[in-house]
Design brief:
Blueprint (H helix, E strand, L loop, with lengths): L1 H34 L9 H14 L29 E2 L13 E8 L2 E8 L2 E9 L3 E7 L7 E7 L2 E10 L2 E9 L1
Length: 179
């Protein structure tokens, strides 16, 4: 009987060692992606700015977005307050010809969620959208489109639909709220 106990203990120990070594190997492999190219060194302010700029240039999609968007007043269903001055943005990776219209970005917020849209001339596009707590995204048409783009949020408190058009090169949104 002692040999059976010894074999069970040896098997359990071997499995624990194998699991630990597999975990350590995985952390070593993943660690390169976590730390990036800094090799464990402390980054200077200039290096941090450079890496942040590179990350901003490569972000896109529904989860992407940008931190350059103007914050919104959650009680204002029309979106951000209009300062009267367009907010031109450009991609640092490409240089647009002088004849190209500037891209104007605006954030819209209501009870169902928040969306960020851009206009370049008459072409509108949704950059990102996020439902508010208790809501989900029912559908989204991100564009680009010369007519409009829209996102629909649905939750237990009701439905909210945002439709954005370009008016004079600026994103202009309208919310339809259903309880």
């Amino acid at each position: 009987m002692p040999s059976r106990t010894f074999l069970a203990l040896a098997g359990w120990t071997a499995a624990a060692v194998a699991a630990t070594l597999t975990g350590l190997a995985a952390v070593e492999i993943i660690g390169d992606g976590i730390t990036g190219s800094s090799d464990g060194r402390t980054l200077s302010s200039a290096q941090v700015e450079q890496q942040l700029d590179a990350a901003k240039a490569s972000s896109s999609g529904p989860g992407g977005g940008s931190d350059t968007a103007t914050p919104t007043d959650p009680t204002d269903p029309t979106g951000t307050p209009d300062t009267g001055t367009p907010t031109p943005t450009s991609s640092p990776a490409t240089t647009a010809p002088a004849a190209t219209a500037p891209e104007v970005r605006k954030t819209f917020s209501a009870q169902g969620g928040t969306a960020i849209a851009t206009c370049r001339g008459t072409t509108v596009r949704l950059l990102s959208w996020a439902p508010a707590q208790g809501y989900g995204v029912k559908s989204a048409d991100r564009g680009p489109d010369d007519e409009h783009v829209e996102v629909r949020f649905e939750g237990t408190a009701g439905k909210a639909e945002l439709r954005v058009r370009c008016v004079d090169g600026r994103p202009t949104g309208s919310w339809k709220l259903d309880d």
